Amino acid sequence: MTHKEQIKKHPLSSATSRWIGGVLFTFLIALLGYLLTYIPGFSYVGQLASAIIIAFIYNLLFGYPERLRTGITFSSKVLLRLAIILYGLRLNIHTVLGEGVGLLAKDALVIAFSIFVMMFLSKRLKADPTISLLAGVGTGVCGAAAIAAIAPIIQAKDNDTAISVGMIALIGTLFSIIYVIIRPFLSLSSVDYGIWSGLSLHELAHVALAAERAGQDALAMALLAKLGRVFLLIPLSIIIMMLIKRKKQSQSTDAQITFPLFLLGFIMMSLLGSYVLGHSIPVSDSMMSFIYSVTTWLLTAAMVGLGLGVNMRDLRHKALRPLMAMIVTSILLSGLTYLIVFP
User: Fold this and answer.
1) Dist. CA 192–CA 170, nearest whole Å
2) Euclidean distance between CA atoms 132 and 338, whole angstroms
3) What share of residues in the chain are helix, strand, coil (percent, to 5)?
4) What separation in angstroms does the CA of 198 have from each of 3, 114, 165?
5) Taking a C-beta distance cutoff of 8 angstroms, is the pair 201, 179 a contact?
6) CA 141/CA 202 separation, integer angstroms
7) How far apart are CA 221 and CA 56, in angstroms?
8) Around Cβ 157, how many Cβ atoms within 10 Å?
9) What local confidence, expressed as pLDDT, does residue 325 receive?
10) What's the count of helices (H) and strands (E) in the chain, helices before strands?
11) Which are the contacts of 173, defined by CB distance < 8 A and separation ≥ 6?
């Protein structure tokens, strides 16, 4: 019996094997990204960014693995949403609200400033508006997780989402390294430096990388400031949905915008982690660390799925101008938040 005859005879098993193979393929590249972080220099880049780089290179050299498309799509769609849901456990609502409205007001200013400046510059540079908006949200809120949460709401293409995530990983890593280098020359206490890092850097990983060198107090304040920005992802998502719906109504098009269910999962996990786990239900630090690791792996595999689908021509033509706008926005954001912390 030939291979084609076997496929016709067992179409379900063949489709299942390709699905499993595609999911495992994204985890394989995620593993390679993790191993790459052990190479000097790549430890600063991180697992997620390293995996995306490998996915870009694979696509460039070998093209998209069509036979594994169903599994890769599953990773980039389903696993991505699952990762966002689990990401909610990182957000301790009680701690954020306990700091009062002062911290949240600063976080809200950071988000509004990042998105406004990014979109303003993108218009001046004639940059792609979707990538610019995603990059602005990622810069203002929490990097790849925020981009992944907002992308379905604005109906962004996977290509644009992957490009935006790659930009965030690149610029966020670069800025966190710069922060570490210039810290000894700044007139900031370790705690103020932590707040500055948490208010201005892109990913949680970038914040941790920059702040941990200044001590545990700096790291704690940095993560607290960052968590306030993560908390505001929820109202930001609702605001963006309302704006899109209003825009569609004004254009006399279909205004049906459904609330992404995975964001409800994110909210539920945030409430669970803030008020149940560790309170009504005892959970060890090792268990929470394991859950965080699983979340990171799922998010990395999902980003690999997106990265494999990036059109290299689009990457060259669509990424440069938003990248320029994002660099300028990040510089201005660092300056603004520095003045907020140390007027």
Assistant:
1) 25
2) 24
3) 80, 0, 15
4) 56, 14, 19
5) yes
6) 7
7) 35
8) 15
9) 95
10) 18, 0
11) 44, 45, 46, 49, 206, 209
Tell me, what amino acid is at 69? Answer: R
The two tokens of residue 332 are 């201005």
User: In which residue are the tokens 């107090």 written?
Assistant: 217
Give every CB contact of residue 142 below 8 A, 6+ residues apart in sequence: 202, 203, 204, 226, 229, 230, 233
C-alpha angle 296/104/335, rounded to 5°? 85
Please tell me the distance from the alpha carbon of residue 223 to that of residue 95, in angstroms, as a whole number. 11
Q: From start to end of 69-224, where are the E strands?
A: none
Q: What is the pLDDT of residue 34?
A: 92
The token duo for 226 is: 């960052």
199, 339 contact by CB (below 8 A): no
Q: Bridge partners of 277?
A: 281
pLDDT below 50 — which residues of the chain?
1, 3-4, 6-7, 10, 12
